[in-house]
Amino acid sequence: MTIEIPQSFWLYFTFFALLLLDGLWLMLATRNLVRILIGIEILMKSVTLFLIAAGVLTGRLALAQSLVITVIVIEVVVVVVIAGVILGFFRKHDSLDVGNTRDMKG
Amino acid sequence: MIWFTILLVLLVLAALWASMTTALLRATLGLALTSALLSVVLFAMGATLAAVMELSVCAGLISVVLVSVTSLTQPRSVKEAIADRRSHLRRFWPLPLVLIAAGVGLSFVHAPIDIVIRLPGGDGDVRTVLWSMRQLDLFGQILILLAGVFGVLVLFRKEAK
Description:
The complex is a heterodimer of chains A (106) and B (161). Chain A has 106 residues and is mostly helical. Chain A is 75% helix and 0% strand. In chain B, helix 2 runs antiparallel to helix 3 (48-72). Chain B has 2 domains: 1-108; 125-161. Chain B is mostly helical. The chains are: A mainly alpha (106), B mainly alpha (161).
């Protein structure tokens, strides 16, 4: 079975926008730090989809893939460092509530 | 085209499940499912190298990191869990309706002009692009990885007595 790849900008843009909206809602509506990290991840997925779609539509798929690989490397480092920050925060405050970050010294 | 659209719909549904579910572990599994479905979409689009990276790193490594964070944080009491679940559902019940409205709205919108320009010339091999044309990116990635390792070392260092 072969899957036909559509060449419609609006199809990709629609699903990119839906993923973006989902990730933004998760980041803004939750008070849990791990869920905020998951929201960042969903935003990264939408960007990955849109980069590859741009590569397919403009005929520059190899360039888009190299950019996506860069995005994935940055994504891993961001997730690992934020996970460490969340663990340190939990040990200090015994909670994952984002409201407790207000009393941090900065 | 219909199979590809179904894949994209499943991708959004998995992301929605990751957002809506009340348990952190299920949210992490939803994110892993989203990554796996995205890698299938990327593979179908011909971006095989990006699909492999997405599947191995995002669906694998990042899920392990998130499950570790979830397991290292203290379990809540039953009372707190019920209160959190109510608060979560109160904040997130409009999200599916908003996504459906946005999807229906965007499906009726079409650009009046062709905003995508197909560039002239052939597309090179991804290995050639990565190792020959974008060497500076690779150098930056190595620096970012080292910065990440340094950041983790700083976060987990023992306090001097």
